[in-house]
Design the sequence.
């Protein structure tokens, strides 16, 4: 590096106060306050009340489900044929099913698989989608053509049919679900990211970064993607919701997971009797409620994160 | 380096953009030199090819542009050089200051980090070294409380401060050539003066050559050593500031100067002088001299509308691209 100390210091800023200094002095509280990134992020996020409620709900759900081994009132899948199946009571908060299993316990264990599938699918499909979308949007030309047609191809396949067939082939396990759902879910994020990259890459600061000698890789990672974080977050959270619902749908239709595995979808599937009898409605109510809570919370969380990631939303 | 050897030398630069409406001749046969430690003012109205020229120097023109001619930096040809070679030059040896600092700074990155990045892509410095250097740069461009300011985002800066940060970024590696594309256009006059003062101070320290692109004659009059006047993608006149302002030998330059408001002269009818007509379309550039339809000195049905004017040397280092450069002052006008 060829930076040498100045032989003669140029006019030191202290000797001649500039107008900007005077300006600052006139405005009370104009002294710049430096806050850490995390503090700013937290402050912007906390302003979003619904998102705060959402994250609390999600935390409770995650702790309850993944801590089921310690927290659940009864062992997993324990049947008790001596009790009469019935609605919520002091001993069985969520009631019991016709097999005499405690529904609270089943919902907690079921959530493990449902949430795991949701989170893993969202993570993988976001990674793949961002990668494909960023390359297509940034490089354009035949790379964009190729990747976009590839994306379109995945978008037009009949999702439910492919899912059903693939799950039968790969085995009815949660990992098979994750792979197949991620494989069928990345295109939405890829499209959104491509569009965002197309608009961000035309911004002047990208040209400025290029004029400063930054490489394409650095421009994508440091300058373009951080400017797309809002839409990416929102779509990632939507992907969680979509995956949780897809698993439940398939399982409910009998194409997905099977007991002794348990998931919210399986619980719904087992609650078929509720369709004909109003007295067992609670068998649908609790797993369904958990699904709805998860999906709603995740959506509000997405909104909150989008705002929190944007430093401009401070004003 | 010898002050008489050009740092940057542009010869016959021609940039065309094919569009649906026809070929846009953005820059046409442009030649000039930039010498060490000088400030070259590049003056011209919108669409005269100033910005395209600077992008061509940095190799940042869009792929659709058709470029020919020669650009040499320290004797090495850089037009059409490999991307990796250009990247090593950009921001390190040749840097650029953009007009709109708010648009040219990434809104989601801290200003200090962006300046640090400009250094990081060219030099391997440790984190504390980088931080110190950025604070030093902020101090140099006159940003008060640099330690706190580096941690702020562009939207927390005022317009003038942002332009200073932009300058800090462009001088971070002490480039040999600093291309300032309308650095003060978006600023009010007070801040404009401060920013120009910062540029001069930087130049005293780094001995960079500055290419100051502007449409504001007042700005170049104050800071430039030499001026190149551009019209329709071509050069009209090159000379020192005094030659351009007091001994101009080109009708376009004369027209520009006459249209400046002057405090020492009462304006007849309270109206400023104007150059008749519109700047030409860059798709259909008038034949001969591109300025002839608007030129009060033009010889109708003569050389002006048929022959491209040659570059006439009217003094040492003073060139005018006009058929009548030498006899302009005696020529009758038809206005």
Sequence:
């Amino acid at each position: 590096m060829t930076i040498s100390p100045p032989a003669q210091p140029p006019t030191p800023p202290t000797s001649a106060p500039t107008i900007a200094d005077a300006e600052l002095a006139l405005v009370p509280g104009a002294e710049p306050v430096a806050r850490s990134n995390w503090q700013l992020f937290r402050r912007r996020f906390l302003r979003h009340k619904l998102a705060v409620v959402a994250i609390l709900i999600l935390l409770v759900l995650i702790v309850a489900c993944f801590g089921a081994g310690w927290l659940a009132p009864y062992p997993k899948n324990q049947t008790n044929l001596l009790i009469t199946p019935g609605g919520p009571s002091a001993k069985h908060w969520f009631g019991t099913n016709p097999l005499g299993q405690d529904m609270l316990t089943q919902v907690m264990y079921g959530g493990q698989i449902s949430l795991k599938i949701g989170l893993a699918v969202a993570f993988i499909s976001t990674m793949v989608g961002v990668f494909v979308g960023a390359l297509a949007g940034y490089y354009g030309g035949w790379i964009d053509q190729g990747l976009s047609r590839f994306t379109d191809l995945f978008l037009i396949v009949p999702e439910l049919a492919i899912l059903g067939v693939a799950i039968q082939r790969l085995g009815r396990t949660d990992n098979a679900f994750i792979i197949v759902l991620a494989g069928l879910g990345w295109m939405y994020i890829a499209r959104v990211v491509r569009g965002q990259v197309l608009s961000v890459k035309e911004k002047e600061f990208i040209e400025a970064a290029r004029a400063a000698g930054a490489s394409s890789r650095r421009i994508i990672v440091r300058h373009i993607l951080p400017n797309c974080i809002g839409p990416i977050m929102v779509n990632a959270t939507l992907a969680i919701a979509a995956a949780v619902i897809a698993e439940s749908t398939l399982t409910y239709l009998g194409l997905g997971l099977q007991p002794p595995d348990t998931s919210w979808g399986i619980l719904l599937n087992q609650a078929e009797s509720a369709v004909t009898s109003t007295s067992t409605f609670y068998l649908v109510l609790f797993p369904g409620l958990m699904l709805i809570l998860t999906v709603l919370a995740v959506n509000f969380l997405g909104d909150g994160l989008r705002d929190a990631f944007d430093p401009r939303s401070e004003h | 380096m010898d002050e008489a050897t050009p740092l940057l030398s542009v010869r016959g630069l021609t940039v065309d953009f094919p569009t649906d409406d026809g070929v846009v001749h953005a820059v046409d046969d442009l030649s000039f030199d930039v010498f060490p430690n000088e400030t070259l003012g590049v003056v011209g109205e919108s669409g005269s090819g100033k910005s395209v020229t600077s992008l061509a120097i940095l190799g940042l023109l869009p792929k659709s542009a058709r470029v020919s001619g020669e650009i040499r930096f320290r004797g090495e040809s850089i037009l059409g050089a490999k991307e990796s070679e250009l990247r090593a030059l950009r921001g390190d040896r040749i840097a650029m200051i953009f007009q709109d600092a708010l648009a040219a700074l990434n809104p989601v990155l801290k200003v200090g980090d962006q300046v640090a990045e400009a250094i990081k892509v060219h030099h391997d410095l440790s984190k504390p070294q980088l931080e110190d250097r950025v604070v030093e740069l902020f101090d140099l461009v006159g940003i008060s409380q640099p330690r706190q300011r580096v941690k702020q985002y562009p939207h927390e800066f005022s317009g003038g401060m942002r332009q200073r940060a932009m300058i800090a970024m462009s001088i971070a590696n002490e480039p040999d050539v600093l291309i300032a594309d309308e650095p003060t256009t978006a600023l009010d006059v007070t801040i404009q003066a401060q920013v120009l003062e910062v540029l001069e101070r930087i130049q005293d320290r780094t001995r960079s050559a500055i290419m100051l692109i502007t449409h504001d004659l007042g700005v170049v009059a104050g800071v430039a050593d030499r001026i190149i006047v551009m019209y329709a993608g071509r050069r009209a006149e090159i000379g020192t500031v005094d030659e351009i302002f007091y001994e101009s030998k080109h009708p376009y330059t004369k027209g520009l100067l006459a249209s400046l408001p002057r405090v020492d002269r009462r304006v007849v009818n309270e109206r400023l002088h104007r150059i008749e007509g519109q700047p030409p379309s860059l798709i259909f550039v008038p034949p001969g001299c591109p300025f002839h339809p608007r030129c009060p000195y033009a010889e109708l049905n003569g050389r002006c509308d048929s022959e491209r004017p040659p570059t006439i040397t009217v003094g040492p280092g003073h060139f005018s691209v006009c058929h009548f450069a030498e006899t302009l002052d005696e020529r009758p006008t038809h206005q």
Summary: The interface with chain B takes residues 1-3, 6, 10-11, 13, 18-21, 23-24, 31-35, 203-205, 207-215, 218, 222-223, 226-227, 229, 309-312, 314-315 of chain A (CB under 8 Å). Residues 103-139 of chain A form the longest helix (37 residues). Residues 1-32 of chain A have pLDDT under 50 and may be disordered. Residues 11 and 155 of chain A are 63 Å apart (CA to CA).
